[in-house]
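sorry to bug you again but im stuck and you know this stuff better than me. what follows is a protein written twice so to speak, once as letters and once as structure tokens for the fold. mainly i need to know what kind of three dimensional shape the backbone takes. anything you notice is useful, everything is just below:
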Amino acid sequence: MTIHSTQNSECAAYSSFAYEVAQGVFTVHFFTPSLPHGAVQREDKQSLDSSALSSVLFRVLFATFCSIITISIIMYKKIILTTIGLLTAVSLLAGENAGEARASLLFNFGWKFHAGDAEGAETVAYDDSGWRAIDLPHDFQIEQPWDRSASGARGFKAMGTGWYRKAFRADTAWQGRRVLLDFEGIMLTGDVWLNGTRVGGTDYGYLGFETDVTKHIKYDGENIIAVRADTGQNGNSRWYTGGGLYRDVHLLVKNGIAVARHGVFITTPEVSERSASVGVQVEVEGLRGKQLDVLIEAKLYDPDGRLVAGTRQAVPKKSKKLAEEVALPAVNIEAPQLWSCETPHLYTAVVTLTLDGEVVDRVSDTFGIRRIEFSPDFGFKLNGRKIILKGIANHHDLGAVGVAAYERAIGRQFEALKAFGFNHVRTSHNPYSESFMRLADRHGILIVDELFDKWSQQFAGGRTPWLMLWPAAVTEWIKRDRNRPSVVMWSFGNELQTREDWTGFPTSDWGVTGYRILDVLAKRHDPTRKTTVAMFPARARAVTKEDPSFNVVVEPPELSVVTDIASYNYRYPAFPKYAEKFPHLIFYQSEAATNEMGKAYYGMDLDKVVGLAYWGAIEYWGESRIWPVKGWSYSYFDHTLEPYPQAYFMKSMFDSAPVVRIGVADRDAESVEWNDVVVGRVPMSSHWNRGPGVRLNMVAYTNAEEVELYINGRSLGVQKNIIDDPARRNVIPWRNVPYEAGKIEAVARSGGREVARHQLETTGKAVALRLEAEAGDWRADGLDLQYIKVRAVDSEGRDVPDAAGEVTFKVSGAARLIAVDNGDHRSDELFAGNKRMLHNGRALAILRAGLAPGEVTIKASVPGLKGAEKTLSISITGR
């Protein structure tokens, strides 16, 4: 949370701060006086260091006094005063004077937006008074009407442009230093102007860029940033991309001698439970042609905030390079807290540059101590233990907010996946946001980090030849994500071997030379990880299944034989024959069909494979098979993350805890041949409000030995779990069951003992609404989201799945309503506004916190039902 003060004074500067504790490491936000409107100082993660105490003692006392005075004026709450003053003191102690050498200002607030093109909008004099005020992140395409005439692949949204403008005043303290704008992404392509001059842009919006605007900043008046975002043509993507400033924007202020962009590289070359060696490499810019005494110091803090190691190294005095990479002496950490899926411990490295003894730059980054290994004998090991990647491969949208990269939207996705036994995400087919990667670190999710789809201009932004794009893209991507312990593999592309023009380089070898070129550059910046390319649908010589020889001569694609990891979409049945011919292959099923469920998993040799990723396990926008379905829907979770019954099958397979779940078929199975593979699912739900006289097909998903099914206390018999059949394991069917109102119950047993139970009840008619807040903590940082679930209930408080009606939401207080949803992938309703139809008896409201703590009240009403109201608190720390 940020407390803003209009005073341009030292007292105001010290009393403007933010603080939170995450995994025992102090997260401190430092603020400079007179920040530009809408700017928030970016966090710098550091921990308490006793050497800083004496140098900041006076500042602590003064800041505490100032914060008490300031907060008392703003908050009028005596209980807050002591807390705020204490947190100010702690934050200043933790900072070690950080923020003086480098400032990173969050520029997400105070923008204006215009949908469509606007001639002259890049100029300073352009009148934007009629534009809509917005805050980032923002996906303008998700706000557009659904359009049946538009491309189903692109989510039935029209292609177009959007303009953004932001005014700010520069601090005179920036003079004599470098000022840069840092855009984490502009979708799909974008251009940036400052004060009427084009200063940068991107031709591949999934990756960020920074641009030096030092010469263009004005200190005697307002500065105007203008951004034009373009979603390109329909053919420039095969899925919904979204559009606009959908990730964070920062303004950076640093000295000429500084750590370069993504310039800290942390490795853990030797890891055991007893000790670990840690290497730190720092890339320093601004040295060329100079002879300077620059020293690099790195301090390493454990997950509890304790200083555990330090290392330093002088920078070479003579350099002809734009940036000099300096390896510091490796350090040893005893009894390290290892990063894993179950214990995602994160250390923090704080790197400081000094010039002639004065601090000129300081940056920090988190890292994990872990060891990864790959082999055709065991697949994948993490910290010496065999791990199977149990994952999903999706696109990057996040439901009702589109592709806007909200941390809460990402975090709840990870929480849902882990709750059902998943441990892995393949970022198909592009780099996801930095927030996504850092949250994967915190949640213990294993990432296969993917850069491109096809190696062609068409699928890489559309306005720049891919051969001109890839060198900068590879460098930015690898350097951005190489400190993330969650990343276990790099993937350069997807399904590109059936057409020569999709392999980028004109080498006539199905991408082999192209891969080797990309691999050299990737390993130049990160030699610690394996690389791959996902293969499908062809075999060697681009033979597809329509060819009579497809199942006669079973040879792997040429490219998959040379990649570090042999990744195949859907072709797991061929793994044994591929291995016979090429025993060095390490197999990863980079896409598995959701309708194959256990067959795709148990059908592999689990002792030897790396793992798999189920394609489209969460519904996403785009790649629709037919109107009115707005996207991929053969999934285990709907786009609000409500689980379908099939999700419990995944839990039964991926999680050792006993589980049983009843799923009732709502209608016949849906299937379609998609991309040379048959996909689909049985539409299914878990409720017992059915019509009189109907007969139902149903299943019990379980990892127990047997299940007995009861209707109103009467047994329908016991069935065994057929564990030796990959297609039937954990799926126990009951067919043609006559419906009786009341109760249906599945009792799972192993060794003759009950281990799990699930029941469904027939409910009464809906009489009221119930509101459920999803997150227990909510931060007043202007970005944090709260998801409020609305459910129709009967007189006994039970969810009524067939309740209908339009929900009206009213929100007041310290947050605003940004989207409404109900999980219906066929709905033509938009997410903006405050009304939404109930779907399966439920709806969803998404609220965005403001920049000040306080209370928020949300009310929901449906004609004919008793309304519901809930009041929540937003706090400084979110706790």
In short: The two ends are 12 Å apart (CA to CA). Confidence is low (pLDDT under 50) at residues 1-38, 42-99. The first strand starts at residue 18 and ends at 22. The CA atoms of residues 316 and 553 lie 58 Å apart.
